[in-house]
STAS domain-containing protein
Amino acid sequence: MERSYASRSSGELATAASGSGRPVRVIPLRHPPGFGSISSSSPPWWRAAVGRARSMGPLEWAEAALPCVAWMRKYRWKEDLQADLAAGITVGVMLVPQAMSYAKLAGLHPIYGLYTGFIPLFVYAIFGSSRQLAVGPVALVSLLVSNVLGGIVNSSSELYTELAILLAFMVGILECLMGLLRLGWLIRFISHSVISGFTTASAIVIGLSQIKYFLGYSVTRSSKIIPLIESIIAGADQFSWPPFVMGSAFLLILLTMKNLGKSNKRLRFLRASGPLTAVVVGTIFVKIFHPPAISVVGEIPQGLPKFSIPRGFEHVMLLMPTAVLITGVAILESVGIAKALAAKNGYELDSNKELFGLGIANICGSLFSAYPATGSFSRSAVNHESGAKTGLSGIIMGIIIGGALMFMTPLFTDIPQCALAAIVISAVTGLVDYEEAIFLWGIDKKDFFLWAITFITTLVFGIEIGVLVGVGFSLAFVIHESANPHIAVLGRLPGTTVYRNTLQYPEAYTYNGIVVVRIDAPIYFANISYIKDRLREYELNLPNSNRGLDVGRVYFVILEMSPVTYIDSSAVQALKDLHQEYKARHIQIAIANPNRQVHLLLSRSGIIDLIGDGWCFVRVHDAVQVCLQHVQNSSSSALKLASQASGDSADSISTPKAEKQRLKQDGFFKNLWKAHDGNADSGGEVQPLLRQNLV
């Protein structure tokens, strides 16, 4: 007979024979390297960072400082130059009218949209890690700028422009700090449902804010839908047909060209040329007919932006919440798009480097009169579809904007305002994601609730409140899921040694007196109380078992810990308390398949010694077999003792049933520990396993 599990060394494999002669193998659990030592075997993070820095060569240092070096040193002039030229020209032509439109949305003069699409493009091409991302003014950021600055100062004042430029500087600083401190992971806690609901509501607000150029009268500037609708209704008597007809015609042209460009690869140029078409046609119409009811852009300064230090730093604290919000939007929109494009084009992208590149672009842009810039979804998609290979396409876009600033601004004087508004509305229609809401309703009501609550609060209470509520609910769901992890009772699939959730596999074998529990999460201070409550619930409400002898209660709780990636000190103390509680109620804990880190922590904290080294297993099946040995051998002895006690008693007929059950359980537990201690004292003999039909 082999030695008992508790006395086997970590390098041995024990084999025991059941009563039917079938061999049973129990694999010993090995202690992880470094067991018993105080320090971890893995080096500290700073030492690993120093080691990586020392191993880097000059070229790697250059790539780390300037990501453009990575594509410049591998540039294929014959293959890549033509594609980059075509993509850069296409998106540059698209950017010129869009930049002016988004500046109007931000409450700024159109020239500042062109400034925002100039310097940041060159800087990002050098410091940005994405090769297809098109940086510049975008609708959502423009709306945020308009919303916050409109509540501080009148948009016609010079201070309004100064604060918009200061906001770009602040956003750049925040993005650089987040990139350097590697904090890009924080955005992972915001659900995609929240992002979709927020962008859908924002797109509707943006569209309504631009409708004034179609209607021909002024509309209240607000990020809330109710004041916008009230203002539109109140000014209905001032409605003018000419701008409405012209704006609607331009919007129809833009949407038609956009859809044709998406649906037909041969016509993809239509998608990029739509904004330019609307601007050119509108300008020609105004120059020929001079309609008095159509408002135009007016005079635009000619020439490149001049270097200047941002002003208005006394308003920094007032602008800080919006700067944080715009930074969050930049992470969500830019980094998300950049990662998707990198995956499609077969290269890796570091989100922290991307944040740093965007930050440098915004800081440099603010020194040349730009307001906050970020990656554009629509222009990046066109850039990718046009075949852009490297950041050179972004440099070409910047050259086109520079050329427009130097030579073409006199031509922009007669651009109709309704044409620019149609460009904005056409761009944001792609952000209205009602299909996502329908999908979430059918798949996950919780995510649909997140989408709906973010959408409604953004529309009704404004962008800032909508974001806070959405993020708050998103974090609340994350915390709830973490504090209430999934816990499953496992059973053995017939004919295998595989243990699975009994709710998913009702036919799985479960054994009387033994509960196998799998905890599908790290165990830490926030969820240990919930886990203990669930374990007590399994003890009190005994799961229905279909195999083995009926012992009336739980005597073994096996914790399957393979999904547990981490355990903290609070959980360690709670497990010690749980062991003491179980010991007082005659219940033995067994641990199966902990990972290296968890096993090391359990060993150092003394839990392994407390539970017993012999109750730690590699497989759940091993733990179940050892528990079944004790259940079979001790339970048979307990039944005999209970029978003798009842037979010798003169008043056995009148003995209550509960008392008999107590005698049986007490006898079972005493014999269980007697058998267990006897094995340890007798040189480690393994008791015979259950009969084959019970295993």
In short: The CA atoms of residues 214 and 245 lie 8 Å apart. Confidence is low (pLDDT under 50) at residues 1-23, 36-41, 639-665, 672-695. The chain has 27 helices and ten strands. The beta strands are 14-17, 23-26, 135-136, 374-375, 487-492, 499-501, 514-519, 556-560, 588-592, 616-617.
